[in-house]
Known about the structure:
By secondary structure, the chain is mostly helical. Helices cover about 45% and strands about 0% of the residues.
Amino acid sequence: MSETKCKLFETKLTTGQLICINKMIAEKRLALSKDNIILDFTKGRTANVKELFVNEATDIIRFLKDFRYGSVYEAAC
């Protein structure tokens, strides 16, 4: 189970993380890019915030903290 660790054993995000992500996306006016952000961080696994794993949610929160208001989010290719 090395790097391709079984997803069944990963922990879902916390309620606090869910609230934080949704609040930050709204504050930074990224609602239109929300699905793309989630898809990018989950490598296409999901576009639903509620289906994030703790580590993915942590990465998204870090990204959103550094994201400057007024910047444009460009999805990864």
